[in-house]
Write a structure and sequence with these properties.
This protein has 192 residues and is α/β, with parallel strands linked by helices. It is built from six helices and ten strands.
Length: 192
């Protein structure tokens, strides 16, 4: 993850590149609408799912049997057999960018750093619970808990998870690591 800041500061992909151009994802972020692990989907869909689906690219990352499969609009596009999957959180200052969250603190997105013999890319999924779940249900993937979030206890909702991370202190979790740059308003720029 030596080039994580460089990768996260480049413009993110919001759709899977065309066949023959998949290597463009190396060193970049692909924003995924959904992470599916052993049949569980993240983020959990709410009452406005039909409306929101029209705005999405419908990129789904499915983790199962040691593989990560990227699909777009229901069609499998590429399969990765990673040798390492670093799982970490990117802080999103929701209370700054969206007035309805003014009474909330920061929230978090999950970032997966997927490394294989040929590939080195980042997948970003809304909400921190996705990463927490993947770390505790690894789907036979070689996951690495970069920030120690697997043991975080929370009541169940995405906001409860964010509150638990905020109480632990995200700044202290990333301090002294190559992820320290994420403890500012940076991640808010990457929101879709």
């Amino acid at each position: 993850m030596k080039k994580v800041e460089q990768a996260l500061t480049k413009a993110a992909f919001h759709g899977v590149p065309k066949d023959g151009e998949l290597l463009l994802l190396n060193g970049r972020v692909l924003v995924c609408d959904t992470l599916q692990v052993d049949g569980e989907k993240f983020p959990k869909e709410g009452t406005f799912v039909k409306m929101i689906e029209k705005l999405r690219h419908n990129v789904v990352a499915t983790a199962n049997d040691g593989l990560i499969v990227l699909s777009e609009n229901g069609k499998e596009r590429v399969t990765y057999a990673p040798t390492r999957v670093d799982v970490f959180l990117a802080k999103v200052n929701s209370q700054i960018i969206t007035p309805r969250y003014a009474n909330q603190g920061p929230t978090y997105d999950t970032v997966l750093h997927v490394v294989s013999a040929r590939d080195d890319l980042y997948l970003r999924v809304s909400g921190g619970k996705a990463g927490h779940y993947l770390l505790n249900h690894a789907a036979d993937l070689p996951v690495v808990d970069v920030l120690g979030i697997a043991d975080t206890e929370f009541a169940g909702s995405e906001y409860d998870f964010a509150d638990a991370i905020n109480k632990r202190g995200y700044g202290s979790m990333v301090a002294g690591t190559e992820l320290a740059f994420l403890d500012n308003n940076f991640a808010s720029n990457l929101r879709v």
